[in-house]
Design a protein that fits this description.
This protein is mostly helical. Helices cover 61% and strands 0% of the residues. Helix 1 crosses helix 2, helix 16 packs parallel to helix 19 and helix 18 packs antiparallel against helix 19.
Length: 362
């Protein structure tokens, strides 16, 4: 199912701090979370990620590509970034590790791939190279990579140069099934954008979210989600994003409301579930409704336990006569993704399952 075009763009970033500077108007929010359901971009990426060929296998021209083109693209992104790192660090202590990292989809948890890089060797690299190396390790599930990222974040803030490699790697990391990897991607984005984690930064973004310039508006909605996820004025962030999505002054264009959905999904608190459910039910745009369903089901920063709290309302939506057939289908797909149950698209079957699940839980 198609969703809004949220693909990363290769743009030059003007670093900015606090409220005195606005980001480059060309900036676009970065990740593409994929679409909803068992055949979604996210699901197929993870399936392809687990079964991807090793570096030796890719020379076999008979090897079939993953069924989903974006899943293959994400795998190619990581392979390309790893290749670039190999070329740029050839002859250094990183060379051997990067050769192994090229196989991370198959051997991501191997003892060699999980070995920690020497801090001395890492410190010899430029900040963006450090971030690329550690993000590559993080998406390959190498032990200790997310901790290393966290220890370097403050030293990177305002010093990272946003480049296509970082853009691509954060896209992959934000699609990770590992919450720690997704959180690391958020931290890297904030550091690369030069955004301080402060109340004043949130207030600056709140003002920018009312900009008449569309690119600046959606940029602010995205960065508010990043900041809210890191615990910076989270309640305020949820209030502002919800107002842009659902308030009396609702933005007229679906693209802006879609980015308000993405911002709420990034925040990942239980308080975001109600506005996401309301958007799924009430938004006039099918694209926004689909993004809301996906954010409830699999994308963003909600935990599985939080997502499960949306199940009763999703069951109700599955046969709500006020909703169209496509929204009913998204509700069923969200139910399947959240619960990992493969039931028919039958509201009665889902109600029976839920009643039994509640009875067992009691």
């Amino acid at each position: 199912m198609p969703g809004p075009d949220t693909r990363a763009e290769d743009v030059s970033v003007t670093h900015w701090h606090g409220s005195s500077q606005l980001p480059d108007a060309r900036l676009q929010p970065t990740p593409d979370y994929g679409t909803l359901g068992p055949n979604s971009d996210v699901a197929q990426f993870h399936a392809a990620y687990r079964s991807a060929p090793s570096a030796d296998d890719v020379s076999n021209r008979g090897q079939r590509a993953p069924g989903n083109l974006r899943a293959f693209h994400l795998l190619a992104i990581v392979g390309g970034v790893v290749g670039a790192l190999v070329a740029s660090t050839s002859g250094t202590p990183f060379h051997s590790w990067e050769k192994i990292a090229a196989r991370f989809a198959r051997h991501g948890n191997s003892p060699v791939a999980s070995a920690k890089l020497s801090e001395r060797d890492l410190d010899r690299q430029q900040p963006e190279r450090q971030a690329e190396i550690l993000l590559t390790r993080a998406v390959s599930r190498s032990d200790g990579a997310t901790d290393q990222i966290q220890s370097h974040i403050e030293g990177w803030r305002g010093k990272l140069k946003w480049n296509p490699q970082l853009s691509q790697l954060t896209t992959v990391a934000l699609n990770s099934a590992d919450e720690n990897v997704r959180a690391s991607a958020i931290e890297v984005q904030l550091a690369a954008y030069g955004l301080k984690k402060s109340d004043s930064t949130v207030e600056a973004q709140v003002r920018q979210a009312d900009s008449s310039t569309h690119a600046q508006k959606i940029w602010a909605l995205w960065t508010l989600g990043l900041l809210g996820n890191r615990g910076i004025e989270t309640d305020r962030v949820v209030q502002v994003l919800s107002a842009h999505l659902l308030g009396a002054g609702r933005d007229s264009d679906a693209d802006t409301r879609g980015w308000a959905v993405e911002g709420l999904a990034l925040v990942g608190t239980t308080s975001t579930i109600a506005p996401l459910l309301k958007a799924l039910h009430d938004d006039p745009s099918a694209l926004v409704r689909e993004r809301a369903a996906c954010s409830l089901a699999e994308s963003g920063m909600l935990t599985r336990e939080q997502r499960l709290t949306a199940v009763p309302q999703l069951i109700h939506y599955s046969d709500d006569p006020a909703l169209d057939a496509q929204t009913h289908a998204w509700a069923f797909q969200a139910l399947a993704d959240i619960t990992q149950q493969r039931l028919p698209n039958d509201p009665a079957a889902w109600r029976v399952w839920y009643q039994n699940a509640v009875a067992v839980g009691q």
